[in-house]
Amino acid sequence: MSAGSVAVVVTEEIGVPSWDLYELSIPCTVFGKPQADLADPWYDLRLCGTGGGAEDGPQGLSLRTRYGLDDLVGADTVIVPSVPDPCVEEGMPLPPELITALRRAYEAGARMVSLCTGAFALAEAGLLDGRRATAHWMHTAQLAERYPKVEVDASVLYVDDGDVLTSAGLTAGLDLCLHLVRRDLGAHVANQLARRMVVPAHRPGGQAQFIEQPVPLGDDEGLAPVLEWAREHLDRPLTVADLARRAAMSPRTFYRRLQAATGATPLQWLLHQRLGRARSLLESTDLPVERIGELSGLGTANNLRHHFLKHLGVSPGGYRRAFPGARATRGERPRT
After folding, report:
1. pTM of the predicted model over 0.90
2. Which of 26, 79, 89, 135 is positioned for an S-S bond with 119, CB 3.0–4.6 A?
């Protein structure tokens, strides 16, 4: 597995509103800062502009880039962080040269990615036709109406459709970018990068975009410690009753609180944590598959294989072979 090159689209001549800088900064932060101790070489990031730069962008902001749309072709990954609000709200046409460049990049074999309203650009290029996709929930109705060939899912954080990936807005874009690192370089590298960015290591794409009844801040002290304890004891046969007892809650209250906070049921959350542990161990150690099943709490080698095939589409052995240079020890690495 390797990092490769990442080309990020910047709509220069239309201008980048200050409130869209967040989506633009996400790929710059994840892929643009070298992390040689995690992977060397790191990603090769290029900001590719659609024009000559806005004379006076919104709130006095204008951007100029070194690379142009021709540089999208040949990139391993192309990311459209967002499109200007008038293109979403008022139907302003996107630059035709951008749409052409996106199609050419895809035909050349690039992995295509959108964050937030960037999905409108991929949809306009026809790259989402017949695919499941998402965007910020405030804009998914417009996306579905304007592009009826797209199967729009307004409820999820991001959608990984193999060579085309889309995310909801704001922090969901960060989730998707870390997911790309996980696909390219493995769970251990993605987890370490997330730790440096002081963000959760992994929120699954199927998690809800927003929570109707978030956990009150004053109650977090009762939930967070037990989840951390569970992560440190995944090798044990944990049950909802066990975790609820440790959190000094009834099982029903614990179930409701965890689902409100994470968008997942306790069993779904536990399975996700166990799979993450197993992936990290497969990448970083030469431990037998049977032992990894025990340490992750997934049980036998057959049970581990079942969950990997069901949720990751690959066997544990196949997953391990993708990371031949990452296993530095036969011992059990510290938990991360």
Report:
1. no
2. 135
